[in-house]
């Protein structure tokens, strides 16, 4: 069989529709990142243990907070303005200026507040935190300009280079004995490589700008920043509060359960990433029928892998955590079983936030995220002292359910956050049959070794997708269309 040359492969990919192509590139990138991320995390978990990983998770929480302050919602505003067309250069230039001012202020604040970072200073992570915030700021402004220009594929490749460089650097440095410092240093290397690649494909250039551009960016950015602050609180409040009430050991266990559960949102992340620039453009043109069709279809495709991942994770969660990460992390099984259903709600929440931002309604995004953040913090404060990490998982589940419902309510007069019903029926049927199959296999053969567990997981997944492919016409036609356009099968 003749192996296609690289140019031929690229040519075939370009024949696929824009949204399909960008979604495929985005999903492929995320799958590669997830696979390498899981493998590296398993390595770190076995080598470093829950205590060291817990300290690293706290470093990531600090990094998220200071990166948010240095970002100030400006990148989201720049993406929105560039995606609408018009004078992209002036908006890009004003955004670079504002980001430089914010980054300088944040770094100055970290230096002034150094005495407060006792744990970071003692572990040697303080200076790495400063360098990571700087490198992350440079990376973010460059990749945002590329993404806003509609080059979703390039931005995804840049993100892929960022993450693979980070993981590779972390593996090397941890193996060399640098422990949590090596994990932190990986982020710096990843940001530098990712930014270097994206910079080559940047089409907008620096130009003169005035107060009009600055005011326009700041008007959008203030609500985007506040919305981002709420999202950051939702993402990291549980980690910080688990660390406050419990220990780094529990933080490590909870962090692994949360990280593993994110596998259910991979397809959703790819769809959202590909959709935003196009939905923003359709909104400007008033093409709400196109938006509704794209959102309904993207939700259906996001749930195709998510629903079986959640069901399989609930059934096999104890074995998965034990064999992949170690005996200590199997203690997070109950938390994982609570978090997994929450990720289904998060798919609708993230899709709703994307739509609100694309519709130029950042104020409403803020209302959702700040309400969700307050609810999340309050529930964590109430539940962690009583139920430990399971309490934090319950807080996450309640927060995601509330957020998804709130998003759907705000968008109901414009579009419906509803996947295509025929697809959902087929997903539920295939998932139910897969669940029965897995439970039967687990009943006749104990999943007490990783080869048996792997066989059960793969068999269940193959059965699910075979049933779904046979039952669902839309899925069959879309797959056949992609294969035809790419030249993999003949018309």
TrEMBL record:
InterPro entries reported in the protein's UniProt record: Poly_Biosynth_Transport, Polysacc_synth
Highest taxon of the lineage: Archaea
TM stretches of this protein: 24-46, 58-79, 91-113, 125-147, 184-202, 223-246, 252-277, 298-322, 334-356, 368-387, 393-411, 423-444, 450-469
Keyword Transmembrane attached: yes
Topology relative to the membrane: Multi-pass membrane protein
Pfam families found in the cross-reference section: Polysacc_synt
The keyword Membrane is assigned to this record: yes
GO cellular component, one term: plasma membrane
Keywords: Cell membrane, Membrane, Transmembrane, Transmembrane helix
Subcellular location(s) of the protein: Cell membrane
Protein name, UniProt field: Polysaccharide biosynthesis C-terminal domain-containing protein
Protein's organism: Methanoplanus endosymbiosus
């Amino acid at each position: 069989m003749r192996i296609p040359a690289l140019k031929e492969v690229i040519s075939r990919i370009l024949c696929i529709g824009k949204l399909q192509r960008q979604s495929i590139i985005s999903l492929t990138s995320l799958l590669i990142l997830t696979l390498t991320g899981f493998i590296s995390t398993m390595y770190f978990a076995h080598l470093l243990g829950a205590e060291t990983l817990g300290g690293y998770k706290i470093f990531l929480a600090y990094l998220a907070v200071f990166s948010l302050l240095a970002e100030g919602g400006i990148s989201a505003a720049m993406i929105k303005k560039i995606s609408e067309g018009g004078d992209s250069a002036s908006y890009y230039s004003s955004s670079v200026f504002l980001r430089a001012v914010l980054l300088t202020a944040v770094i100055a604040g970290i230096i002034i507040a150094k005495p407060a970072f006792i744990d970071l200073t003692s572990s040697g992570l303080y200076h790495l935190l400063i360098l990571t915030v700087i490198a992350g700021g440079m990376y973010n402004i460059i990749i945002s300009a590329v993404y806003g220009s509609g080059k979703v594929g390039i931005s995804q490749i840049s993100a892929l280079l960022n993450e693979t460089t980070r993981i590779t650097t972390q593996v090397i440095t941890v193996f060399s004995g640098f422990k949590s410092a090596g994990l932190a240093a990986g982020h710096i290397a990843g940001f530098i490589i990712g930014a270097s690649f994206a910079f080559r494909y940047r089409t907008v250039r620096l130009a003169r700008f005035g107060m009009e551009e600055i005011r326009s960016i700041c008007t959008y950015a203030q609500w985007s920043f506040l919305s981002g602050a709420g999202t950051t609180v939702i993402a990291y409040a549980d980690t910080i509060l688990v660390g406050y009430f419990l220990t780094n050991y529990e933080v490590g266990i909870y962090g692994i359960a949360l990280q593993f559960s994110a596998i259910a949102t991979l397809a959703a992340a790819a769809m959202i990433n590909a959709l935003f620039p196009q939905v923003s453009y359709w909104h400007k043109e008033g093409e709400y029928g196109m938006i509704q069709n794209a959102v309904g279809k993207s939700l259906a495709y996001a749930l195709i892998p998510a629903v079986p991942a959640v069901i399989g994770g609930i059934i096999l969660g104890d074995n998965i955590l034990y064999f992949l990460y170690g005996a200590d992390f199997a203690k997070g099984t109950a938390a994982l079983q609570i978090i997994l259903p929450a990720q289904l709600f998060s798919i609708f929440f993230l899709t709703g936030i994307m739509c609100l931002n694309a519709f130029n309604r950042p104020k409403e995004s803020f209302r959702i995220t700040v309400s969700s953040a307050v609810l999340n913090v309050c529930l964590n404060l109430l539940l962690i002292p009583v139920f430990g990490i399971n309490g934090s998982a319950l807080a996450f589940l309640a927060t995601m359910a509330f957020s998804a419902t709130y998003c759907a309510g705000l968008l109901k007069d414009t579009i419906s956050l509803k996947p295509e019903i025929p697809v959902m029926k087929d997903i539920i049927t295939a998932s139910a049959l897969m669940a029965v199959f897995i439970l039967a296999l687990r009943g006749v053969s104990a999943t007490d070794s990783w080869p048996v567990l792997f066989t059960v997981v793969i068999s269940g997944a193959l059965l699910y997708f075979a049933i779904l492919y046979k039952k669902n016409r839309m899925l069959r036609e879309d797959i056949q269309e992609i294969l035809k356009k790419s030249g993999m099968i003949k018309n």
